[in-house]
Amino acid sequence: MRGRWQDLSDLVLPGECGGCGAPRTVLCARCRAVLGAAAARRVRPVPEPPGLPVVHAAAAYADEVRATLLAHKERGALALAAPLGAALAQAVRAGLREGSVRWGAGAVVRDGGAPVLLVPVPSGRRAVRARGHDPARRIALAAAADLRRGGVPARVLGVLRHRRTVADQSGLNSRQRRDNLAGALTVAPGGARLLRAGPVVLVDDVMTTGASLSEAARALRAVRDGAGTPYGAVTGPISNAGWTEAVYGGESWESREEQNVGSRWERTGRRPGRQGMAGADGADGVADVVCAAVVAASPDSFQINRN
Fold it and tell me: Fewer C-beta neighbours within 10 Å, C or N terminus of the chain?
């Protein structure tokens, strides 16, 4: 019940701005402007971990933006998911534009077509229990809703799972983070088939070294290439119960409630048929990771044109 009561209290009794601490507002106009002030840009950490997809970020992880993300993640200011989701949606749009993701006869992804699949990098179960929610998943849901309002069909597909416990990443350098996360993620049984339904965009709240996004991309590509969960794990039509277990297995009731956001796919349970995506399909028609998007990235990672 913690997440639901927090949502209610944030709406009825907003305490202070998540970015600057101004009273009686969830996010003040100035901090909201900072979060979405600039167009989303491509970012690249140095050193860049192997296998990292092209990443776009809406803002630099500093000052008000950093405070807002930490308020949402660590202090349970759940109402901040909406403005953070809008920022993430900007980064997703930028990635799709740069990647020239097109369906059918060159039509840009738009309402009525196969959905963009936002795959969040999952938090560890211990962290989810401590925080009472999964920050990246919650922001991804808000981003998907923002994309749909803008005419881009989008769906959150939470198919990534931790296969082992990892150490706390704080205090680790880039190489230590890569070693800590190597092989830590996998795709849930049945998830490979669901990934065939549209272009895959990895999403997270923050990118620092890129290790988490790199490991998430590796797990998805392993399934595509047949080195992870086999495609044959699920055959025939997926029942509603099977769909729910494949996407939400092991998650709390709160996460399942959050997913009920009303898209056509979610309301009817009907999944669109496979459509060709030029230059992005992997083996057996499973779409590769088109790009990645985050709300914020380290300031240095915006300087991608280094010598």
Answer: C
CB 122 within 8 A of CB 137: yes
Across 105-121, average pLDDT: 69
What single string gives the DSSP state of each residue in 241-258? HHHHHHHHTT--HHHHHH
What stretches of the chain show up as alpha helix (H) in DSSP? Answer: 2-12, 29-35, 63-74, 81-98, 125-131, 135-149, 174-181, 191-194, 211-224, 240-248, 253-258, 264-268
Q: Nearest CA to 53 among 271, 162, 200?
A: 200
Residue 4 and residue 78: Cα distance in Å, rounded?
A: 9
What is the number of helices (H) and of strands (E) in the chain? Answer: 12, 10
pTM for this structure?
A: 0.76
* Backbone region of residue 195 per phi and psi (left: phi > 0; alpha: psi in -120 to 50; beta: other values): alpha
DSSP state of 61: S
pLDDT tens by residue, 130-168:
788 899 999 999 999 999 999 999 999 999 998 877 766
Contact 77, 26 (CB under 8 A): yes
Angle of helix 174-181 versus helix 211-224 axis, rounded to 10: 30
Q: Measure the CA–CA gap between 151 and 244, rounded to whole angstroms.
A: 25
